[in-house]
Amino acid sequence: MNYVDLLTAELSRIQDANTFKRETPLESAQGGVVTVNGKQVVMLAANNYLGMSNHPVVRKAAIEGIKKYGYGVASVRFICGTQTIHLELEKKISRFLGMEDTILFSSCFAANEGFFASITNEKLGLAEYQDAIYTDKLNHASIIDGIRLCKSETTDKKIYNHADVAHLEQLLEADKDKNFRMRIIATDGVFSMEGDIAPLAKLVEIAHRYQAILFVDDSHAVGVCGKRGRGTPEACGVHGKIDVMTGTLGKAIGGAAGGYISGKKELVAYLRQKSRPYTFSNSLPPAIVCACMAAFDLLTKDLSIVRKLQDNTAYFRKEIKALGFTILDGTHPIVPIMLGEASLAQDMSAALLKAGVYIKGLWFPVVPKGEARLRTQISAALSKKDIDRALNAFEHVGKKFNVI
Ligand SMILES: *Cc1c(COP(=O)(O)O)cnc(C)c1O
Q: What is the dihedral of CA 277, 283, 287, 293, to 10 degrees?
């Protein structure tokens, strides 16, 4: 068989179960309301938590960035692809997160791929060594892939049950007398399928007790969680106490692209030498760098944006429950509406689009079998009227499908 036949056979095999449905394209910019098939629909599926994707101040900064610094830099950072703005953005992120230093990547996926292997695969002057990584079962694919790049001869990889600090402690305790060079605990700050927050206060304490490095990917949380939007460490009372933070600039912070790792200055200096997706991949374009700086400035100066997101979220969570839907409780703007069957999630998301709401269903293998859901994502870009319009559609469609 040639490869095209093999792929065709595989595509038809997985057709019903777990292919992504063909995307429904937007005919407008991302926002609280978008245009689809010529109709205005309320957007409840974007990572555009703060409405920065099409914010006038952010757009303007991107345009000014192109005017002053050009479209592309045509180089990696260490050759001639570092402009003053790259350094400025790195400083701004460090200050925002309360960390010593920051290194930019083209995405958070690249940042996570660049982190683990660059540290664990190097002898760092030792003749022999062994490292251990303890990773949450529900961590993002980019953390999983990052850890895959660590050589198994020198890296002991362990998965702990989701958010289960007792299990993590058990694993660390069992390894207590082993002579590991480094122990790394890796977790998402917010888990994207559930919208739950990692138990960071406890993780900080455990990491300290076992002299482990705590790594937190706060992609869904920076700009979202905490009173000032500083992320899950702020929400959990441990701002500035995480060893390594990674995150994306492709969600709350403008939604275009880019990622980063923040931590001790020695770590960042080391990553600039050894992290392959940094060394061998192009610099972030000036438009994105300038727009991200504007987004961080907005977020720092004007706390009303993050407050609006949090108010919108609380309102939606309360009202959708009042309609009779089952949601996963919490505080994050990711609000999973639990349905059970994959076909129900598929049919309801299609019906909701017709009723004026853009929302996506998730089912196996993205979530466990029988836990299919609609994943709502609330945004500061939504007005109360938009949310009410969405709630009306949910009521109508929910009744039609006998869910409420
Ligand atoms: C979205 C996300 C990423 C990927 O970010 P990109 O910048 O789009 O590559 C990585 N980790 C987590 C936890 C995410 O939610």
A: 70
